[in-house]
Fold each of these.
Amino acid sequence: MTTTKTILVTGFLALLAACGGQPSNGVDLLGSSQSDLLLPGGTIEMRMRGVHPSGFSSVAVTTHSVHVWADGVPQPVTIQGTHMNLAHTGQAWLFATFTLPLAATTVHLEVQLDNPGSYAHGSSSGSVDLYERPIALDVEAAQLRSRGKIVLHDDLSRSLTPEGSGLLFLPDLVVSF
């Protein structure tokens, strides 16, 4: 009995060390949460994070809508948060969740932001034209299942360009799972 307990505790400590040494509370820079592994058919988090703020103290965007199709079939989406400040680069903002069907193989995602957004850079501020087209991605369901999330990392130094009296937002994204 004591040997079995010792083996279980030793196995648990080895597993804990392999997973980074200690349990995580909250979200790290990649948007990882306590449950990095997802069972098939589980809930998927959708997050957005700004990178390379280039002097911006605020780049405020609001989620208007999120649409998800798994193998061409529309899926219900729950909006989790609508307001994001992408200049706060240490935060991967949770904006939506959906349940991935067990048999799904491909997923199409569309994220529409409300227009306009706003920015602050030094002593100047103004509006951000968030472009009328949604951010659209096609991904393999297995990639989403691997960690239970998709994080859209937007390079603000490349995404925001001057236009008239404000800025135009043309997303320059890197996607992680």
Amino acid sequence: MAEERVPIDQKIQRELQKHRKRTNIGAISLLKGRELPDGLSAGIVSSWLSGRAKSASPSLLSYVLELWRSLPDASGKRTYPLRPGRIHITPAMIREMKQAWERTGVGPYALVTGSKMLRDLNPKIVSLWMCGSATTARKEQFDRVMEAWSIPMLEERPTMDLTDKHLQTLLSLLEETNFNLPLFFKRDQYAPDGLTLNVVRGWLRGTTKTVRKKHYNYMVKILTQQRDTIRANRLPLDQTD
């Protein structure tokens, strides 16, 4: 369902202009290098500043306002405190989220879409926190996210996010064993339902970000067994003469 737009009245326009002047940061510099919510661009922010746009998406407007409010003014002194209930996303909090992801194998998207207690959250907001694009958050939302990540049932979720570490494990095993994936899937009769050559190719190409745990674990098991067999059949160097 589309968001109901909010009017860009003079009060909002003046606040946007005040923050631009206070920070000496324009729309392009404000958004440059950040992972932005869908639909947001420097052109849209500029249209709010100039008054060309008469309405805006409330989530996009809130994102821009909170971002500008969180920045110090041009002299380095912060003059606009956060609204009640909001907190800064600190490096320690980012580390805490990344550790939770690594511990559970559940990334931001899978966490938010799979948790009943986070149904009101946009899955992208947690990713924005983690990459530093969003510098503030509602405290109660952050607390709920960390609580969801701490639930033991996360360990039993059928899916997981395919991290760089998971992918590197697969690539290393494939390289060491010189594993023939097409031949394997042509002959193997015990692969879990839904695990196909194209599925694994999607992992390796990076086009698939969320995988079934049993699929990933099965491939690691097969590749590890193949690697161990190869290593066991190698003669030590001092026995080759």
Amino acid sequence: MRRIDWRKLGLFFGLNCLLLVGVLGITFQKPRFVRFDKIDFVSVEDSFFNFKILLVMDNKNPFSISGKSLAFTFNESDQQYGSGTIEPFQLKRLSESTVDLSLKLNYRKVLKSYDEKTTDTLLPSVLIKGDFMPAFFIHKINLRKQLGKKELIGLIGAAFSNGGLLWPDSFSIRKVNLLETEIGFNLALVNRLNFDVTINEISGKLYALENRDLPLGDISLQREIVLPPGERLSIPFLVKAENLTIVKSLLKSGTANLNSFFLDGKLVLNIEGESISVPVELSFGKTGN
């Protein structure tokens, strides 16, 4: 029995596909970046942020595009701003699809570029290399992604608020009288960036985890606090509980502790001269965050 030469067979089909594409007049269109769907902060190391990102890509071609073993770099001129890897993906034909990637971004180098170029917008290229299908069309993908200064500051702000840089620190509950109960807790902040961060406002509503519909009360801090690199700060808050039914239920059940509450609010920061408001959602769990 004759053995099949799969290499020759693949080459045969590849050449026929190329011939068909030429006859039909189909030209390959590079996938287009549409938007970031989700950005999760992972960690900060020196001048680098590590992110997990879910983005949306648009494939205008009449065939699907898939990839695996992919890595990318994020460059402008001779400056490399970041690098990362991309999970195996498939971009469906004539539609939008999501792609998961991990990004290591040198935020200090990007901020310095804004100052040197006296601009608030950079246009770095994203070079993606790996194994693509159809391989006869794609060996690498080179995209342009506009990166505005406010967008980068927003990433830094999100990292500060939801990346383990802000967490509940301590807790107390005190029954003042029959009509009033005070809930006290501290919010700890640490600046793991290598430049000053100014906190202009912390505000929000405190809820019991067992009842997210009715707030127990409000918190508000509206004074300027400068947090130098590496510094840790613990800020006390006192909430006069407005919904005593929920508080009494917590006290009666014996579950009124740091694991019982949820803070929904915002943090207003000034980073490198830019003011930004970022959402804060903290569950008061055993590990603090």
